[in-house]
């Protein structure tokens, strides 16, 4: 028994020595914290001397230039987290300045584990009296000082049609906690082509605001392309933020008591000075392209027969305003039949702007055999990085038609479409058409009196009752006005809102699909890209179409809900109501449009 007692005593002493050694290795801190570094002569200053180990013989500074009106008050906080103990001890003084000027709060000392530790000196500036001294600060005042919504603009002096990125950041002081927020007013971006870059995850990051440590979250990102020169305003983004603000009261365990309040913050109006594109050196064929591009003209075939088709593609790729300019048109020989081009785009928008490619695909059908050159065409754009115009030329393409009627070789193959090429008959121009078909007899059976003859004879008589029944059924359906309205609304809802219905219960996906469905409906009815328009523009278009004002308001309110749903909590009941309202609004608009 004695041996086991010695063994456990040895283990216990070793563990205590290890714990004391780890504790000794922890860094000891002793620092001065001020409530502010600049204050009015009628304000109060709170000075806190905080240490992470218990000490003795605390010696405060003399507080030259200040009068101590309260303190020292002592508070101790201790906790165990994951088996690790945290400790802090604080001496707090409330000071009142006695004169204006710059004063230094000198070092305080404390003895911890037999060693003396000192705080760093800090300078405080005392100014003239302020209108609202900090000893009268309310919870709302603290929230005002601790929340800042900032719109960071990538470029304040862009060229016309040059990409500008706007990032909205919410800066939050470490002294408060944000619990929720909702959007009050979103910018309209008038005179800009705009594209939102969705923020999929709101992650807090450490940063500074006016030289002080803050946490910030990116709330919104948008890419703008100014559509006219001069001074253009970016409207502010306004949010209502719900926060928990600490008070001077503490609970039974010494923890600070928080109170909740809300504050409206705005990013402020920003103004861009948009430069016009220079006139000097502007090419005659310049179509408004701004960025850095590549240009090419390609053909799917270079050798084919008459009446066969080929695809001629005019393509521009790179970075810039790809959706905002016209592609150049190729000059093709008049003997080549050319159809209206099919427009294709593969463009993605990121924080630096649009990137990808756009193309026109021309279907070309030759009429005569021969050789036809597709001349080189040029494409011009303005590069904002170099502030210069650039002209690119495509390569000449030669098309050889091997078989087909012969044309008049004396006429230039690149003649305009007005002067059509003359056709000279040679007797061989239709030699590729088969003139002697190989026909065979289909048999000697007679049609009259056959089974097929009698089936075809009596089939109409048998179909008469079916036709009468179908007619009466259709007449009954047509007379059911309310039923037809419901069916029509259901068909339209199923057509344009099918994706939204599948996402019921998934807030973000539902409202994205709902907004897309509403825009697609107007796109189908009005033949316009409504997704590029503001709500005011859509309202004016529907008003011009003599749509009832109540129906317009219902449509716009749905679009507003789609935007607000990105920032506000929406219930399943609200989503179901918005879906039913969308079906009703589409039905009413369809009757009027």
Characterization of this structure:
The chain contains 8 helices and 30 strands. The protein has about 600 residues and is of the alpha+beta class. It folds into 4 domains: about 25-135, Immunoglobulin-like (Sandwich), CATH 2.60.40; about 140-275, no CATH class; about 290-400, Immunoglobulin-like (Sandwich); about 480-590, no CATH class. The strands form 9 sheets. Strands 11, 12, 14, 15 and 16 form a 5-stranded antiparallel sheet that branches. Strands 21, 23, 24, 25 and 26 form a 5-stranded antiparallel sheet that branches. A hairpin with a 4-residue loop joins strand 28 and strand 29 (about 390-395). The longest helix is centred in the C-terminal third of the chain and has 29 residues, at about 450-480. The radius of gyration is 40 Å and the shape is elongated. The termini are far apart. This is Oxygen tolerance protein BatD. Keywords: Membrane, Signal, Transmembrane, Transmembrane helix.
